[in-house]
Design goal:
With about 160 residues, the protein is mainly α. Helix content is about 80%, strand content about 0%.
């Protein structure tokens, strides 16, 4: 009983950390949220099927890979170079020190500055910055959706087992 409570509290903490990690790039949100499901499964309240857990693992892996690809793809799609992509990542990290606006504006400004340092004109730099911003929003939205679904299943499973 005490072990169940400890695992449930740890699972709740992992869910919260996973949701935070969807916005902060240094914390892998969906994998941490998935660990919460595994912790719940280890209690007497967890009753997920093997198929559900394997599907969750696959979705977690896919969204994690997707999150690394989509900002680069989006920046390049909007005409960005490697400097713009690197600038977007640096801007995202720098933006962490100025939440919440810095997290959103940082990738845009970083991509613009990165493009400008390579001698590109301001119009191309702004276009690249917009691409970085769109990529960040898509990646963040997808990670958040997955982590919210995991949170829903955690809470749903817990509530139905308690009643």
């Amino acid at each position: 009983m005490i072990l169940d409570i400890l695992l449930l509290v740890a699972g709740g903490c992992f869910l919260l950390l996973g949701l935070i990690g969807c916005i902060l790039p240094a914390i892998p949100g969906p994998p941490i949220s998935y660990v919460a499901l595994l912790l719940l499964q280890a209690t007497r309240f967890g009753d997920f099927s093997l198929r559900f857990l394997l599907t969750g693992a696959f979705v977690t892996l896919a969204i994690t890979v997707f999150d690394y690809i989509v900002p680069v793809w989006s920046t390049k799609k909007w005409g960005g170079s490697r400097a713009g992509t690197a600038g977007a990542m640096i801007g995202l990290i720098a933006g962490l020190f100025f939440p919440p606006a810095g997290i959103i504006i940082g990738p845009f400004l970083g991509a613009v500055v990165g493009e400008l340092t390579t001698g590109r004109d301001s119009n191309a730099a702004l276009k690249s910055g917009f691409g970085a911003f769109v990529g960040f929003l898509i990646g963040t939205g997808c990670k958040l959706a997955v982590s919210l679904v995991f949170t829903w299943y955690f809470i749903k499973e817990l509530i139905f087992k308690i009643n």
